User: Fold MYND-type domain-containing protein from Periophthalmus magnuspinnatus.
Amino acid sequence: MYIYICICICISQAFTQDLPPPLHPIPATSQSFTPRTDSVFSDSSGFFSMDTNVPGLSKLCLSKSGKPKGISFRNYKEMFQKMEETFKFCTGCNALPENLIEGQSLKRCIKCLNVYYCTKECQKNNWPLHKKVCKTLRLVAIDRLVEWLMFLGDLPFPTNKWTKPTSQVKCWDDWLSMQDDLSARLDAILASPNMETLWKNASRPRPEDPDLRQSVWRIQSEFLSRVLTVGMAIQQFSLDPYAKPLTIHIIGASHNETMGAKLTDYDELSRMFPEHQGIEVVMVGPEVVDGPIMRPPLRAFGPRKRVFMSAHKGLYHEFWEDVVEKEEAARPDLVLGFHPGFHANQGLIEGWLPTLLLLRDYNVPTLFTVFNENELKYSLEILLELEMNIQDSGANPFSSQKPEQVQSSPNTKPVYCSAHYIRFQGLLQSPSNSSVLGKSLEL
Assistant:
């Protein structure tokens, strides 16, 4: 995920036109789509919540780029070098390359190839913290490069038809048991020309094939995690896609959900619910990226056994007033928010408040995901203050398997996208309904 965010922030024009084939351009994001540090829905603010004063979006990246006017690359090697520069600061003392004294340079940890130190003393002093996460950060370093294949179409790889009823697929192991042997699909990606180009230009040794296979799977899991979480929510709210078409809104959608999004991204729902009556997925958020899914939502149900995707750039409560209330879009049967981050600061709470109250007062079945237990705890507290009827919360069995580094504080324990969920609907009717929250606050 961070390769997306850093490129979005630091690059508005990914390549010059004189690059030789077969170079594929990375999708460029115009300045109007880049996250703003003052945006109430900003990814940078959302990631800020993962730890106190630790934005997931690199301070270094923001401080260098400011408001990007466009950066071009002459070749892949330069692109990967620029991306790596967003991670270059001393993990021990936070020194930036330009602040080092003459003769000093930042050198990578030879074990994880992820963090940098300006002196041996910094590395030695930092080792008691770093050794706890060094092995995991090695995976992070591999993943943030392999994830580039998402831009080129190598990922996600095709999945099999479901051979089990949806009710019996309760975790990743259940899903994997329906995929036969993944080796052929993984090996095809490892042998692809794009994988060869990647490691030819990445300025670091190519990992062993077992490590690359695991990396490809982790990135695939993050892509599928959102889809399978939607399917889990459909079941938990006892919605029946075989009885009627379903409309699902993904709110607070941003670069993570929409950059490079394709019309087929949620087709796994058709494998989960074969013969369904039609499923519509609408991405709504102020940082939605333009692309194939940027089209009007359906006014009535879509084609049977197919998933229809669309997107709308804007705040959700405004989308509701301007589009849903005017019957230019169907009302949602289900709403999901992936990492809304409204607990992070007062600005985010205020920005989300109209949407949260709308969901409550219209009794909309809603499920949010969060990164970790602290975020779960504080989000639950806020929802209870708003008198939300919290029905359930806990660990998500379809959490992403790809570790996410808290970029400006690498020695913080990595987190995982959609690691936990909160399910709620309507107004809290009695104090007894708050037992779910009380139990969660004991985390």
Observations:
- The radius of gyration is 22 Å.
- The first helix runs from residue 2 to 10.
